[in-house]
Specification:
The structure holds 2 protein chains of 2 kinds. Chain A is an alpha+beta fold. Chain A is built from 18 helices and 21 strands. Chain B has 10 helices and 19 strands. In chain B, the strands form 5 sheets. A 6-stranded mixed β-sheet of chain B has the order 4-3-2-1-13-14, covered by helices on one side. The chains are: A alpha+beta, B alpha/beta.
Chain lengths: ~900, ~400
């Protein structure tokens, strides 16, 4: 494809139509300054060739001139496959597309609209486009030949159909379509199972099978664990069974041992019982002989006691008789004492009655004195009370003057006097010194005075002099202080009057006199009150005093009525009465002492009489007791004698004989007992306890065995084997599926990988010439001859170097070197693709990073290349290309 | 005296290799058991012996156990002696014999849970059941002790379970039984169980009856029960094998060496079988292209579809004729190279390591098998692509 002419309007900065061309078949230089729109031309060209006219993609919209609604229009004329074509496209508003072919000196429209778009892409070798907007990936080979600004140093990837085709074409290896299809089928097969990185694909058949397998294995493990539990149960049951059997044996053995111990213990028990019986016999014989001896001894004791009782009886009878003689003597003495005591008592009672009478008279006298005293106190109290009442009445009549009021009045009076004194000091002084007789009427402080002769007038503030025949002279003080003092004085005096008038007093002196009187009468009232209380004391008030006096009078009358004193008694003085009372009291006391003495004597006599009587009775009772005792002893003696009818000696001999025999039998029984017989019972008990313990252990184990049996029976019925079988059968199927899927996946990956390796190897084989070609071109461009360009299997530029093992990676090359290398590669692509109809190579500022030294090499290369390939260079450095190719003319507006 | 001797019913057995078809195999065994009992009744057998391994395991599903019990219980006219074997030993409480329903058997079911002598019509039956899964002791020795207690004019039968001691390849803990165990114990007949193939020992007095319903293709003489007749003590028993199995286990190989001949042979073989009673396995052997293999496998599966269980196994090695290979190499040289590598089955270690890294396949898995499978897949893909194009 060769460009011949390009025009655009409403595109980028080209609001007006701009035309470029005609293009040369070789090297074309579009040299314009920055921002002229070189890149816009390149983009517009690409849109016209590769974008659908109907596209409304944002890239198309972005073509409009800034701020306008102009519809982008692009027209271009190009040559391809020996034909000339013209394309006219209008985007967005009024969009349209027409494709013309040169025919007979004119243009024949061969397609329009979508057909025109499709036809155009076919002509220029771009793949069919699916979307409305065309991206560089759908430009076909032109993607690799048109290098936009900033793109020359980067190489588009080789992915996609275009890349694949380009690679294939480039290396002249036409890959076997069948091989590709086989490889793709294998990849798809592997891809259904594994991811590209070799991992199991999620939701793939293998993943599903593996998940199912894992689930089943988990289920199986659970069942097997249950089986293991069952086996464990079985083992425990077996172990427990052995223990139970062992315990059963032990139980049997211990039962036998216990029975044997019991028998031995029973046998010994019989021997012990026999021994006990003989021992008891022995004890009884011993007891018999002892009793005989005791009886013998008792009989002797009884005889002794009978003798002693006879002697004692005689002694007691003698004592009883002696006391019987003493008794009448003691009774007579007692009677004498008691008669004396009776007489003395009568005298004492008579004197006591007299003494009581005298004390009554004394109490009467006391009441008489008390009644008189109280009456006197009552009278004095009444008198004091009257005086007090009088003084209080007098105080009530006095003005209500108080000490504070008088103090206040005194203070006011003093203030008024001070003010007057000060006012006087400040006041007017007028000296009247007449020349002759005459009289002057002066008004001083409101007081009119008649003055004749010389005089000196003193006024506080004003003074008026009436001079007869002359007139009146008024003298007034202008002092403020005098005015203030005058007002103060007047106010104080007014207040003093008010204070005094409150108590009905006319002056301070009167107030002071009244205050003295008030204080005096208060003192008198206090003294009268004290006198009254002294009279009343201890009574609380006058009424109590009156009541006490009345009560004393009544009491006196009562005593008088009770005693009814005779005239003689009434005549006794108080002293006589008191002396009589003392005398009688002393007599009574002496009588009482005498009575006490007689009572003591009487008591002693009575005690003596009682003692003699008791001794007599005691001796009498003792005689009786000794008689009884003697009787009992005699009975006892008879009883003892009755026990041994054959005689005590014979009985004693028989008992001794029985004792010897019993002792011999006991010793014989003792000899029959085995050694350690006393332990046999304990051993028997211990053996019994051992049996009980073993029984308990046995029952415990037997219970456990039973429980295990129950657990085994319950667990045994679960059918674990069958359940496991079912799952294992399913596992077998799933596992086979897992194996199959994995093997299939791996096998497919393996086969695909081997095919890919063969492909890569084949590509590598044909890459060598290309590498040679590019290496030569790159050496020409750079001027460095000993370097080669190496491709990788993906047809990416691996790098540059003398050997493959020492390459400098493409990415590590300088930007200028990369530009030059890619320029060479683009040239190779253009030539290789279409040697008869090479496509146009467009390079936008491709030598930006090429140093001046190499530019010459590049220009040589481009010039030589342009003999085969149309080249369009967009640049803002026209000087670099002077003398090279053809400068494109542009027409604007 | 006439009785039936069987063993190794293996009820509830696992057939993992048959996947979900295993259930059908298990169900058939119970039907066969019923037929065996019916046969015993029909021939007026005095009793029936089951010489161990009635069940495959102690932990069979309760429903299955119940079904077997009900089947056995239904034949009350004939005494049935059941001996626990190594698969279903009497291990005490909780074992299959101590659990319901066998814990309360009807009178005609005689569970032999301990060494004992049982009266049978015309003689005595001496039994020694197994109480564990393994033992190096000869279980028939107990029978000798038991037999000593009976007069020699009494027909003395023995019943136990174990491996006739035929050589060193028999595991020592597999209950080895002396090959002259019957005569050594003075027994007129010793019924055994354990092996699934049938075999007679000790001059015709000791019988391993084989599995009445086979469990594998390799079992010889399996699929029968045996009628035993003994006229009197000291005479040799008359033993008659009675085919009883429901299923026939048939295995064929299909050799690609002569495909046509094999097809004819296979068709003839299929004509002889009852598909609904056949467990069929066909092994494809020889060298064949995957296409051929796929075709034959599809055809075989189609023909075996009516079999109860069918298993077609591809054990071929992929192959092309020289002409086919040449043609393919000419058309697709690159594929020819790849096929050659895959046919070789291996690569140098360094290349294998590189392949492992590139494909993420563990290097130890890059073996001949995988190469063959890859070869097959590649050829299949080639065929598919060819079809598509």
């Amino acid at each position: 494809m060769q460009l011949e002419f390009v025009a655009m309007e409403g595109v980028g900065r080209f609001r007006e139509r701009v035309e470029l061309g005609p293009f040369d078949a070789g090297l074309n230089i579009l040299a314009q300054p920055n921002e002229w729109g070189k890149t816009t031309v390149l983009r517009g060209l690409a849109r016209a060739l590769f974008d659908k006219y109907s596209s409304q993609a944002k890239e198309i919209e972005a073509m409009r001139p800034t701020g306008s609604t102009l519809a982008p229009r692009i027209e271009l004329v190009f040559r391809a496959d020996g034909e000339r074509y013209r394309v006219s496209k209008r985007f967005l508003d009024g969009r349209s597309c027409e494709l013309f072919r040169a025919s007979g000196g004119g243009w024949e429209r061969i397609a329009e609209s979508d057909q025109a778009d499709a036809r155009l892409r076919k002509i220029i070798g771009a793949p069919a486009m699916e979307g409305r907007g065309a991206k560089p990936e759908s430009w076909g080979l032109l993607r690799y030949l048109w290098a936009g600004q900033d793109e020359p140093a980067d190489w588009p990837d080789w992915e996609g159909a275009t890349g694949e085709a380009a690679r294939g074409r480039l290396v002249t290896v036409e890959l076997d379509a069948t091989v590709r299809a086989v490889a793709e089928a294998l990849r798809m097969r592997a891809g259904a199972i594994f991811t590209d990185t070799g991992r199991v694909k999620k939701d793939g058949a293998l993943a599903v099978a593996e998940a199912e397998l894992e689930r089943l294995q988990g289920e199986l493990a659970t069942i097997k664990a249950r089986g293991a539990t069952l086996e464990d149960l079985r083992a425990r049951h077996e172990r427990c069974g052995r223990e139970v059997a062992s315990l059963a044996l032990e139980r049997e053995s211990s039962r036998t041992a216990a029975a044997r111990a019991r028998e031995e213990a029973a046998s010994v028990e019989k021997l012990v019982a026999e021994l006990d019986r003989h021992a008891a016999d022995f004890l009884r014989a011993e007891e018999t002989i002892s009793k005989v001896r005791e009886d013998e001894s008792a009989l002797a004791s009884v005889d002794e006691a009978i003798a002693a009782a006879g002697i004692e009886r005689e002694r007691q009878m003698a004592a009883r008789d002696a006391r019987a003689i003493e008794l009448p003597k003691c009774a007579v003495a007692l009677e004498k004492i008691e008669a004396h005591a009776q007489r003395l008592g009568k005298d004492r009672r008579e004197r006591a009655a007299r003494s009581e009478r005298v004390r009554g008279l004394l109490r009467l006298r006391t009441w008489e004195e008390k009644a008189v005293g109280l009456e006197s106190r009552r009278a004095h109290a009444h008198s004091a009370e009257s005086e007090l009442r009088r003084l209080e009445q007098e105080r009530s009549r006095l003005p209500a003057v108080t000490k504070s009021m008088v103090t206040r009045a005194r203070e006011l009076d003093r203030v008024a006097l001070d003010a007057g004194a000060k006012l006087e000091g400040l006041g007017l002084r007028v000296a009247l010194m007449p020349d002759g007789a005459g009289e002057v009427v002066a008004t001083v402080d409101g007081e009119e005075r008649r003055i004749a002769g010389a005089a000196e007038l003193q006024a506080n503030r004003s003074l008026t002099l009436n001079l007869a025949g002359w007139g009146r002279i008024e003298v007034v003080s202008g002092s403020v202080e005098a005015a203030t003092l005058a007002r103060e004085k007047q106010r104080t005096e007014t207040e003093l009057k008010a204070v005094l008038s409150e108590s009905g007093l006319g002056s301070l002196a009167e107030a002071e006199g009244q205050l003295i009187r008030v204080e005096q009468i208060a003192q008198e009232i206090s003294a009268a009150a004290k006198a009254l209380w002294a009279r009343l004391d201890p009574f609380a008030d006058l009424a109590a005093c009156d009541a006490a006096a009345a009560q004393a009078a009544a009491e006196l009358e009562r005593h008088r009525a009770t005693l009814a004193p005779s005239a003689e008694e009434s005549a006794f003085s108080l002293a006589e009465l008191e002396g009589e009372e003392q005398r009688i009291t002393a007599s009574v006391r002496e009588d009482e002492q005498a009575e006490e003495r007689l009572a003591t004597e009487s008591k002693a006599a009575r005690a003596a009489l009682e003692s003699v009587r008791r001794a007599h009775d005691e001796a009498e009772r003792e005689v009786t007791r000794l008689d009884e005792r003697t009787k009992q002893l005699l009975v006892r003696k008879a009883e003892l004698a009755a026990r041994h009818v054959e005689g005590l000696a014979a009985a004693k001999a028989a008992a001794q004989s029985m004792f010897v025999a019993a002792e011999a039998r006991r010793d014989e029984a003792r000899r029959k007992l085995p050694d350690g017989h006393e332990k046999l019972h304990l051993r028997s008990v211990r053996a019994g306890d051992a049996v009980a313990e073993i029984e308990k252990s046995y029952e415990g184990k037997a219970g456990e065995l039973e429980r295990l049996r129950g657990a085994l029976e319950a667990a045994g019925g679960e059918g674990i084997y069958s359940r496991a079988s079912e799952i294992e059968e399913r596992i077998e199927v799933v596992r086979a599926e897992v194996v199959r899927q994995r093997a299939d996946g791996w096998a497919a990956r393996l086969a695909a990988e081997l095919i890919q390796r063969r492909q890569a190897s084949a590509i590598q084989r044909v890459l060598a010439p290309l590498e040679e070609k590019l290496s030569a071109a790159f050496a020409e461009l750079t001027g460095v001859a000993d370097r080669r360009v190496f491709f990788n299997e993906e047809l990416g530029i691996e790098g540059v170097g003398r050997h493959r093992a020492e390459v400098v990676p493409f990415a590590a090359l300088s930007r200028g070197a990369r530009e030059q290398l890619l320029l060479a590669l683009r040239a190779a692509i253009a030539l290789t693709f279409s040697p008869d109809d090479p496509p146009c190579l467009i390079l936008d500022d491709v030598l930006v990073n090429t140093d001046p030294l190499r530019i010459e090499n590049v220009l040589d290369f481009l010039q030589r290349l342009s003999a085969q390939v149309q080249i369009v260079i967009l640049t803002c450095h026209a000087e670099r290309y002077r003398g090279v190719g053809r400068l494109l003319s542009t027409t604007e507006g | 005296m006439k009785f039936i001797h069987t063993a190794d019913w293996q009820i509830g057995a696992r057939f993992a290799r048959f996947g979900q078809q295993a259930e059908a195999l298990r169900a058939a065994r119970i039907r066969t058991l019923r037929r065996a009992l019916e046969h015993a009744v029909s021939v007026d057998a005095d009793f029936l012996l089951i010489g161990g391994d009635l069940f495959e395991d102690d932990q069979i599903a309760p429903t299955v156990v119940r079904e077997v019990f009900d089947t056995l219980s239904a034949f009350a006219k004939i005494p049935i002696f059941i001996l626990p074997g190594n698969h279903d030993p009497f291990t005490g409480p909780g074992c299959i014999w101590a659990r319901a329903p066998f814990s309360s058997p009807p009178p005609h079911l005689r569970l032999c849970t301990a060494p004992a002598a049982h009266d049978v019509p015309g003689g005595v039956l001496l039994v020694n059941p197994l109480t564990q899964k393994k033992s190096a002791l000869d279980p028939s020795r107990v029978l000798a002790n038991l037999a000593a207690g009976f007069p020699t004019d009494t027909i003395r039968l023995g019943l136990t379970h174990g491996s006739p001691d035929i050589g060193s390849h028999i595991p020592r803990d597999d209950f080895p039984i002396a090959l002259d165990a019957a005569s050594r114990a003075g027994l007129d007949f010793l019924g055994l169980g354990h092996w699934h193939s049938a075999r007679l020992f000790d001059g015709g007095r000791m019988l391993m009856p084989g599995a009445p319903e086979p469990t594998d293709f390799s079992e010889q003489g399996a699929g029968n029960i045996h009628e035993i007749e003994i006229e009197r003590a000291g005479t040799l028993p008359r033993i008659t094998a009675v085919p009883i199995a429901e299923l026939r286990w048939r295995e064929w190989s299909f050799d690609f060496q002569d495909v046509e001949a094999e097809r004819i042979r296979f068709a003839a073989a299929l004509a002889e079988i009852e598909p609904s009673r056949t467990v069929a396995r066909v092994r494809l052997v020889g060298a064949a292209s995957p296409i051929e293999v796929d075709g034959e496998m599809a055809a075989l599966r189609e023909r075996l579809v009516s079999c109860m269980v069918a298993d077609v196994r591809d054990e071929t090695s992929p192959a092309f004729s020289a002409g086919e290979l040449d043609a393919m190499r000419a058309a697709h040289p690159m594929l020819g190279e790849v096929i050659d590598v895959l046919r070789a089955g291996s690569l140098p270690a360094a290349e294998l390591a590189g392949l492992s890294r590139a494909t993420e396949i563990p290097v130890e898995c890059l073996d001949e098998k995988l190469f063959f499978r890859a070869q097959r897949l590649l050829l299949r893909a080639l065929r598919e692509v060819g079809d598509a194009t």
